[in-house]
């Protein structure tokens, strides 16, 4: 009982002192969400909890977890046979304080080199349960599951169950993870909620507005919890911030941008993005995918214009590099656009997809602008997730699956070609414009 009280006390204090932090922003029309799911801690203080894995450079995986005790070892034992570990790696640990809350010990251990398409069994900290994961393939096909604005409601549980019902290789999340919003025990609950999924496939995430957690005067440093818990391969990709980074996997270069880090032409993020795009070899990674939180194109009445400044700053970089598809979250609905550049249809621009419908506690953004923009090809306010399958060097299939109570229903899908294979989009005239925009999607 005492342990439960200590864990609940910070949450209760936050609710009592700062009730306005629990309120949704704005006056959007939203479908009522399902109840919150708080996942309890049911292991010993020394055992690892909130375990998740992420890609960490070529042939390496980072294993992250939390322990309540401060003297637990930051080690991972692993091998290809259950219960038999022929390799061991040592990492680092950290912790943080936020108001009345003190985190557990947060461990990060990088393991490898690992073989592609191989199942590894592993144990964290020399105690606790055994987990397993499968590494991504070295080449095509590869499949990504994509869902933003997850939160931890019954809708979230439904989305994760639907994602898990079909095989995939890597999970991509364009911001807004736990919806803790200053209530730090909800970060712990979220970690425990996603552990059954995030221990078996790499989870690659970027930050959303709900990760900022700045409180004027008292706590003026943003992303404290996010950066401590969800360490991504920013150093491996030459970035100086965990808020933006990139990675290669199976012929695909994935760029995770930070909507809430500086992005003007003088910023570190802009300079990093420009350098990162310049080093991409489309013969090795013919596909290029970008994720960010606040959408650059949006016909929903929610969050109108919030991504415009970033788009005006960075869109030309993505267009010139021939990025294939851009995913965003933030708007709690699904929407797919045609290929776009500078607010016009352009067959050499990226596809834009908003997928902020993972299950958040705020509900859905139900209202779209009417009439619809000709750039918007499909839009619907329902919870769900997406599947991006790179079949080979030139062709990919995207599908969006709407959540039903018992199964996921494919409501939208499209085949498209990689811009790396488009001769028209790489042959430009003296004005820097593609010589032809006649290719079909």
Low-confidence sequence ranges: 1-30, 429-441
The CATH architecture classification of the largest domain is 4-Layer Sandwich
What fraction strand? 25-35%
Distance between the termini: 59 Å
Classified by CATH, the class of the largest domain is Alpha Beta
How many strands, which pairing sense, and closed or not: the largest β-sheet? 8 strands, mixed
Secondary-structure-derived class = alpha+beta
The whole-angstrom Rg is 21 Å
Portion of residues in helices?
Answer: 10-25%
3D shape? globular
CATH superfamily of the largest domain: Metallo-dependent phosphatases
How many helices? 7
Q: Into how many domains do the coordinates divide?
A: 2
The total strand number stands at 24
Structure description:
With 441 residues, the chain is of the alpha+beta class. The protein folds into 2 domains: 49-134, Immunoglobulin-like, CATH 2.60.40; 142-426, Purple Acid Phosphatase, chain A, domain 2 (4-Layer Sandwich), CATH 3.60.21. 17% of the residues lie in helices and 29% in strands. It has 7 helices and 24 strands. It has helices at residues 2-17, 154-164, 185-198, 224-229, 268-278, 308-320, 423-426; strands spanning 49-55, 61-67, 75-79, 87-90, 92-94, 97-98, 101-102, 105-111, 119-124, 131-134, 142-146, 170-174, 203-206, 245-249, 252-256, 287-291, 325-328, 334-341, 344-345, 351-355, 376-380, 384-390, 395-403, 408-417. The strands form 5 sheets. Strands 14, 15, 16, 17, 18, 19, 20 and 21 form an 8-stranded mixed sheet that branches. A hairpin with a 4-residue loop joins β22 (384-390) and β23. α5 (268-278) packs parallel to α6 (308-320). It is globular and about 55 Å long. The protein starts with a helix and ends in a 15-residue tail after the last helix. Residues 1-30 and 429-441 have low confidence and may be disordered.
